[in-house]
Amino acid sequence: KNQVEQSPQSLIILEGKNCTLQCNYTVSPFSNLRWYKQDTGRGPVSLTIMTFSENTKSNGRYTATLDADTKQSSLHITASQLSDSASYICVVRNTGNQFYFGTGTSLTVIP
Amino acid sequence: ETGVTQSPTHLIKTRGQQVTLRCSSQSGHNTVSWYQQALGQGPQFIFQYYREEENGRGNFPPRFSGLQFPNYSSELNVNALELDDSALYLCASSLAPQAMGGTQYFGPGTRLLVL
């Protein structure tokens, strides 16, 4: 069964601290994996996209990793800011052009 | 803002009714995807349209149907509404189908409540 699981479900960190969000998937055959940020009441915004051959990709303070062998991905946020408070969603696409979304990690950054 | 607009922003329907949701994609984008996001859940892929034809579908029943117009705007139609259809419906447009790595830009969503 194609699934995407994210952990933790929610996270609270102090401003300026780093954090890492996890995504494990069983989607096959794999095409690509995206991380999205979704602010409350808004649509998701793409942060990174990674294909099978990519291990690491950065977008500013966001760094995503992918291990296609173990089917795991992580999103590392450096020097968190209050505006990073949002849901972070992992999405895996298969080669049949179907998209599987995780339930997201709710991140709260407090001053 | 992403340039993707959706209408209406909110909608209330009763069971058994039909609903049409609309999406205008970002200028130059020929691909539109629709998602259903239940409260507290991640979005679920419904289907994608590329150049007016369906280009991939998730696990949704046939009463969920769509259209894409020559100007690449799109509609999502849901027939015989059920209570579980209550959700935020998101539309995302991209320059190309995901197979070509096109980044998706999401609209603000339409919140549907079925009573």
Structure notes:
- Chain A has 111 residues and is mainly beta.
- Chain A contains no helices and eleven strands.
- In chain A, strands 2, 4, 5, 9, 10 and 11 form a six-stranded mixed β-sheet that branches.
- Chain B has 115 residues and is mainly β.
- Helix content of chain B is 0%, strand content 50%.
- Chain B is built from no helices and eleven strands.
- Chain B has strands at residues 5-7, 10-13, 19-24, 31-37, 44-50, 53-57, 64-68, 74-78, 87-94, 105-106, 110-114.
- In chain B, strands 2, 4, 5, 6, 9, 10 and 11 form a seven-stranded mixed β-sheet that branches. Chain B has a four-stranded antiparallel β-sheet with strand order 1-3-8-7, with no helix packed on it.
- In chain B, strand 7 and strand 8 form a beta hairpin.
- Chain B is globular.
- Chain A binds chain B through residues 4, 31-32, 41-46, 49, 51, 89, 91, 93, 96-104, and chain B through 2, 4, 33, 35, 40-45, 48, 55-58, 90, 92, 97-99, 101, 103-109.
How many helices of chain B? The count is 0
Helical amount among residues of chain A, as a percent range? under 10%
Mean pLDDT of chain B: 89
Order of helices and strands of chain A: EEEEEEEEEEE
From the helix content, strand content and strand pairing of chain B, which structural class follows? mainly beta
CA-CA gap between termini of chain A: 41 Å
- Compute the number of strand runs of chain A: 11
- Categorize the overall geometry of chain A: globular
Total helical elements of chain A? 0
- Gyration radius of chain B (Cα, Å) is 13 Å
Termini separation of chain B (Å)?
Answer: 31 Å
Taken as a percent bin, the fraction of beta residues of chain A is: over 45%
Average residue pLDDT of chain A: 91
